[in-house]
Write a structure and sequence with these properties.
mainly beta, 53 strands, 7% helix, 41% strand, disordered N terminus
Length: 674
């Protein structure tokens, strides 16, 4: 396989030296005296007056800076920067200047607070679980540490995740939000056993007290100036994140506050990044903009302007990885693929590459038509996944990489119906696709009529489509399906291309997928975890590559020994010679007629209908791989003699080859790749 490295020149336009009003400011923190706000924008840290105005850029490195934290006296700012490869802690003067590096570990360190005396900075990082509590160590579950603000040795504060730390003025207690699992921190409307709660930690007794203890998300706690109440973000009352407040129980023994007050009532978008000044001014972001709010007052938007010295330039971007949805043209001379959400086609013989789409929306699932001159793909440029075709317009141009004019057309446009994952039929006259993520449909490209193959009741995953493929004769589909909404597994089936009932070929009770027609359509290759370590609502399953033979003749042929198979091939050669000799007996036919007849015979042979014998098919399922493993893709050679597959036994995937006739397995390439 040739490794294709594509060099793409994309024009990147940018703002040039004038004031703009930024959107999607992040990591906002108001200063202790309430006069200034620091925030992160496009990977740099800025400072703006709390009343609004022109923001001052405090960091100018090419790296990404984020999570700024004020010192108690407002004279310093700690922040995270990946200028050395991963996020480390840095500290600098609040007015800007040279930053001092505080941490040097290879983990990512994210600051959350200074201690009240300003001597230490607390941060979260996954460095080392104590031996006594390392039940299930993972990089996703951090520990809490502190490091001297003037540099020095780090010290572990808590062995469990404690995020968004906020001290009271005495330093004897701090608030934090916990983390119980791997759930995305930006997920909205989440209710489960691992949602975040707000806790109170006593630094002297070591006692943790859960202050919210509910199934919804409660996060980002900050003390009120008097230390007797807590402001926090929550999705309670059925809405998005807003600011709430509750009074602390002075005895600090109650696990749940008695009364929670609503402070903000924003709708549609969540409130993020809550902070508070020493005088009680709240600061947060909503819909990408900064807001402040005084006690018993309405939220006030902070008008921010900033000047960026971005230059207009042409960036030469090289990609040797990251391509998806690769599709080889039927003649083997072109490869279409997706990079950065756009469609490209490159030559297999040269480095010439053509960008087919250039839209703000994402394109996916690109595929070649049998004519080598047409592409089909899905795009969400209109906000709804739709099907598009791209065709080489000029007849004298043979391929996409060298085409000068390409015509694009949308198929079946709709503002409400989603259509994606298109595949041409073998003869190119029809187009299959998945509608609304669960129904397999077919479009007749000549009449524009659409027919339904499956009704959507066999697929319940709304995250995307399912695996399916046309049979070589165009009369069947093989597909992955789920028989019941509550089944935790999927099976491999076949269904008529005209629609009808899906026939279950596997019935394994475990996850099977990636079905592909092989052996001229007489068998279906698929992967399954039925023999390996299974993923029971977890991860780490192991798979095998298997074959299901659709008829007895193909199964019997596969089972022949090497000797018997060689004898069979010799017999077939003799039979073909005899058949070809019979064709030439009619000496009155012209050479053109003979050529036409041969071509017609070959076409008919290629389009021979697949024989499907369902009776006893459960006895014609064969395990190919010699052992279960973490599998990537698998393909079978056209003659059915060799299986090629990616398997990961240690580290990344390696390429393996197995001769099915001789049962010989060997590793072809030590790739250690994804």
């Amino acid at each position: 396989m040739k490794k294709l490295i594509t060099s793409l020149a994309l024009a990147l336009t940018a703002l040039s030296g004038y004031a703009i009003t930024p959107l999607w400011m992040r990591d906002a923190r108001i200063s202790p005296n309430g006069t200034e706000i620091v925030f992160c924008y496009k990977g740099d840290i800025y400072k703006v007056p709390a009343q609004g105005g022109t923001a001052v850029q405090l960091t100018t490195q090419a790296s990404y800076e984020a999570n700024p934290v004020w010192s108690p006296d407002g004279k310093q700012i700690a922040f995270a920067s990946d200028r050395n490869g991963n996020f480390d802690l840095f500290i600098m003067p609040a007015d800007g200047g040279t930053a001092q590096r505080l941490t040097y570990h290879s983990a990512s360190e994210i600051p959350s607070a200074f201690t009240p005396d300003g001597k230490f900075v607390l941060f979260s990082a996954s460095i080392q679980d104590p031996a006594g509590s390392a039940l299930f160590p993972t990089g996703a579950m951090t520990e809490l540490y502190k490091v001297p603000a003037d540099g020095g040795r780090t010290e572990q504060v808590l062995a469990t995740p404690a995020e968004w730390v906020c001290f009271d003025k005495s330093g004897k207690n701090f608030l934090y939000q916990d983390r119980k699992g791997f759930e995305d921190e930006w997920r909205k409307h989440h209710t489960s056993s691992i949602t975040r709660d707000i806790w109170l930690y006593n630094t002297q007794s070591g006692k943790h007290t859960n202050l919210t203890n509910r199934e919804g998300e409660d996060r980002n706690p900050v003390y009120a100036p008097d230390g007797n109440s807590v402001y926090f973000l929550s999705e309670r009352n059925g809405g998005s994140f807003n600011v709430y407040n509750f009074s602390l129980n002075t005895s600090q023994t109650s696990n749940v506050p008695q009364e929670v007050k609503t402070i903000t009532t924003f709708r549609t978008h969540p409130v993020r990044f809550l902070s508070i000044s020493d005088k009680g001014t709240l600061c947060y972001t909503y819909d990408g903009e900064l807001y402040t709010q005084e006690a018993n007052a309405r939220p006030k938007k902070v008008n921010v302007e900033l000047v960026r010295d971005d230059e207009k330039e042409i960036a030469s971007l090289k990609f040797s990885q990251g391509a998806t949805s690769a599709s080889v043209s039927p003649d083997g001379k072109q490869v279409a693929f997706i990079v950065r959400g756009d469609v490209f086609v490159t030559s297999t013989d040269y480095t010439t590459t053509k960008q087919i789409t250039n839209t703000p929306g994402k394109e996916a699932a690109v595929s070649f038509a049998p004519d080598n001159r047409t592409l089909v793909y899905a795009s969400e440029r209109t906000g709804n996944w739709q099907l598009y075709t791209a065709k080489i317009a000029r007849k004298e141009e043979a391929n996409f990489p060298n085409a000068t004019l390409i015509e694009e057309e949308v198929l079946l446009p709709s503002k409400t119906v989603e259509r994606a994952y298109p595949q041409y039929s073998p003869d190119g006259k029809e187009l299959a696709f998945i509608e609304d993520r669960n129904r397999l449909m077919v479009l007749d490209l000549k009449t524009k009529k659409v027919r339904q193959v499956t009704d959507g009741s066999t697929w319940y995953n709304t995250g995307g489509g399912f695996d399916y493929e046309w049979s070589p004769d165009g009369k069947w589909f093989t597909l992955e399906f789920i028989g019941n909404r509550h089944d935790p597994y999927s099976d491999i089936g076949i269904v008529s291309a005209q629609g009808g009932t899906i026939t279950n070929l596997t019935n394994s009770g475990y996850i099977s997928g990636s079905p592909r027609w092989v052996l001229d359509g007489n068998a279906i290759l698929f992967q399954t975890e039925r023999y390996g370590m299974r993923a029971h609502a977890s991860w780490g399953s192991q798979q095998d590559v298997m074959l299901v033979f659709l008829n007895q003749d193909a199964y019997d042929r596969y089972r022949l020994s090497k000797e018997d198979f060689e004898l069979l091939k010799e017999l077939e050669k003799e039979q073909k010679k005899a058949k070809d000799g019979d064709k030439k007996k009619d000496v009155n036919k012209s050479k053109k007629d003979e050529a036409d007849e041969d071509k017609s015979s070959e076409d008919k042979a290629d389009k021979k209908d697949i024989v499907v014998e369902l009776n006893g098919i459960e006895d014609r399922i064969v395990r190919l791989t010699p052992n279960s493993s973490d599998l990537g893709s698998a393909i079978l050679s056209k003659d059915g003699e060799n299986l090629y597959y990616f398997s990961a036994f240690e580290g990344g995937y390696d390429l393996w080859k197995m001769n099915l006739r001789e049962k010989d397995t060997k590793r072809l390439h030590k790739l250690n790749t994804g």
